[in-house]
Amino acid sequence: MSTDRYERGAAMLAAIDGPAGLAVVDGLAKSFPDFARYIVEFPFGDIYARKGLGLREREIATVAALSALGKATPQLRVHVHAALHVGCTPSEIVEVVMQMAVYAGFPAALNGLAVVREVFVEKDISLPLVSD
Amino acid sequence: MSTDRYERGAAMLAAIDGPAGLAVVDGLAKSFPDFARYIVEFPFGDIYARKGLGLREREIATVAALSALGKATPQLRVHVHAALHVGCTPSEIVEVVMQMAVYAGFPAALNGLAVVREVFVEKDISLPLVSD
Amino acid sequence: MSTDRYERGAAMLAAIDGPAGLAVVDGLAKSFPDFARYIVEFPFGDIYARKGLGLREREIATVAALSALGKATPQLRVHVHAALHVGCTPSEIVEVVMQMAVYAGFPAALNGLAVVREVFVEKDISLPLVSD
Amino acid sequence: MSTDRYERGAAMLAAIDGPAGLAVVDGLAKSFPDFARYIVEFPFGDIYARKGLGLREREIATVAALSALGKATPQLRVHVHAALHVGCTPSEIVEVVMQMAVYAGFPAALNGLAVVREVFVEKDISLPLVSD
Amino acid sequence: MSTDRYERGAAMLAAIDGPAGLAVVDGLAKSFPDFARYIVEFPFGDIYARKGLGLREREIATVAALSALGKATPQLRVHVHAALHVGCTPSEIVEVVMQMAVYAGFPAALNGLAVVREVFVEKDISLPLVSD
Amino acid sequence: MSTDRYERGAAMLAAIDGPAGLAVVDGLAKSFPDFARYIVEFPFGDIYARKGLGLREREIATVAALSALGKATPQLRVHVHAALHVGCTPSEIVEVVMQMAVYAGFPAALNGLAVVREVFVEKDISLPLVSD
């Protein structure tokens, strides 16, 4: 058992996404307990817990990658929530996704913005942003 | 003609990547002048010039996306240079690319790190980083 | 403001997709007005408005790319409509998507054909086509 | 007409996926008869019918590829069924999809496991597996 | 043996790409004879030989898809040659690849244009095109 | 420190790929020691070390996924070696890669077969295989 990594990962997941993140992992663990443990241990216990890059920057990187890849809608939704939770502004999130039009095409940005809009509705963030 | 956008984009490209960025565009313009102009105007004149997200964060997003997509090696090289140029630390860049193992798999991160290493050699940045 | 590009793009969008295209952009503009403007200006005002390739050929290229990429279903639906609107025959559209089995695999073609079928139902185009 | 390939493919499809596979092809044939015929002839009549690799191994390769590509959910569902039908154990299927976290990222594996869970519910296979 | 399809495919391949296309297949056949045969039979004997879409349009679709996918450089080179061979103008080819910036991002278009330039050099087609 | 996972992973890597696998990791560790450690620990110490799927089947899944993704050539080369090392026959490897034409398109299979040929040359495996 890798207790330290799991505990560090669970703390990091709570810091990044609040109780919602742990709830997602608990739901997964009912069907795939080992994979749920790996998610806590490797992405959160090993990677997100590293020094050298702030959590805001980590979430910006993740929102960018998931929008660009364009085939991970449920995970993008989780990380738009997480980006807000660690202090990214709504504008920063919208800007990151819009920027993906340059690197992955307009459909990737459009589909990413549709996810952003869903999360913003849940969080009572009005669109359009004043800055837009 | 859209002079304002072009001039704003050229200034932004110089701010992000120094003279190297403009040299790349000038090379492209010899064969594909309209496309070279679009690159200055849309990505740099429209997107990077927007408020709401800092240049360091924009480069973090771009390095993340290009590593994750894994099929844009020349562009990743340009943006590792650009990330350093706008003030990202070497550690931040390495962390972003390593994090892509989580979202796009270990081969994407490995191939991204190979590009990072090439750029760091050109810039006399020693690896491994002390923080690693 | 880039008024000329916007007006040229809006005219091109109407020529390609009829009133439905402008309605999609207007819906987007309620949440993301700048991105809605970029879509009119760059893809339609800059690219589709260029000489050197006919609109039928542009839509064939777009239907091919979106089917092959396989992660842009809403945009593929729009462009199957647009392809019909600019004069592609139903057979041409089905042939393009089938051909993607060669370059992107059978699942990409199958999922593209499912979108084609939905649009053809809306447009009262009977399947199978006589030519098939 | 390529009768031999079609008959060999139809027999192979029935061997791999039972009557469900042929039903899928029959449904497709109502709209796209030629493409339905190609699917029987090339993937099943040419490729799966070849010697040199067992059917269990062929389904492991297909489940791996479709999970990794991450944009072919309906086809992944068919091939999780097929993998069970040709004798892969539930554990083998779960292991293959989990392994894709290494090569295509955790979202690809997570979305693949969601499909596995749906199929296992239909087949009354309890999760978590005892081996997990 | 499926003699008819092979002969029809070989004739189609010669019509599309001249002797170069058959030479590529012959080279492949030295190592992978069955796969070389499949390439002649399915893409060329079944798909390209179909009615309902002209060869110019088929090559436009293929150049679009291969540029957008961005991971099939050798095949893109073959099909830029083929597009010229079946009568696409240099402008049409450049326009198709540029248009992929919209759907697959600027790096995909840039890397596609680099392939176009290589082929145009071989064919003594001067860049920039006068129309650009 | 997660000593057990590292040792288990290093043993698994040696079992799968012989001394060559460890040499690759040692080379990586000179520039990116933490990432080299993660590769030993997570893919090999956690995933490949699991019960429920044989090593031959794991390599079939990996060769399939890397061929289908088509952007991980160095990693595909390593895993064609590994597949041979754990007992896959040359035919099985060729069949897996050919099968990817169905799911990821002919270019993915062609580019995968080019890697297979390189590795087979190094290992003195003659092509074409007698079974082909």
Account of the 3D structure:
The structure is a homohexamer of 132-residue chains. Chain A is an all-alpha fold. Chain A folds into two domains: 1-50, no CATH class; 54-126, AhpD-like (Up-down Bundle). The first copy, chain A, has seven helices and no strands. Chain A has helices spanning 3-17, 19-31, 33-48, 55-69, 73-85, 90-104, 106-122. The mean pLDDT of chain A is 95. Chain A binds chain B through residues 42-43, 47-48, 50-53, 57-58, 60-69, 72, 75, 89, 91-92, 94-96, 98-104, 129, 131-132, and chain B through 42-43, 47-48, 50-53, 57-58, 60-69, 72, 75, 89, 91-92, 94-96, 98-104, 129, 131-132.
Looking at the structure, what is the overall shape of chain A? Answer: globular
Number of domains of chain A: 2
The value of Rg of chain A in angstroms is 15 Å
Strand content of chain A: under 5%
Question: What is the oligomer described by this structure?
Answer: homohexamer
Order of helices and strands of chain A: HHHHHHH
Please mark out the parts of chain A with pLDDT under 50 across 5 or more consecutive residues, or reply none: none
Please outline what is shown here:
Chain A is an all-alpha fold.
Describe the SSE topology:
Six copies of one chain form a homohexamer.
Chain A: H1 3-17, H2 19-31, H3 33-48, H4 55-69, H5 73-85, H6 90-104, H7 106-122
Helix pairs in contact in A: 1-2, 1-3, 2-3, 4-5, 4-6, 4-7, 5-7, 6-7
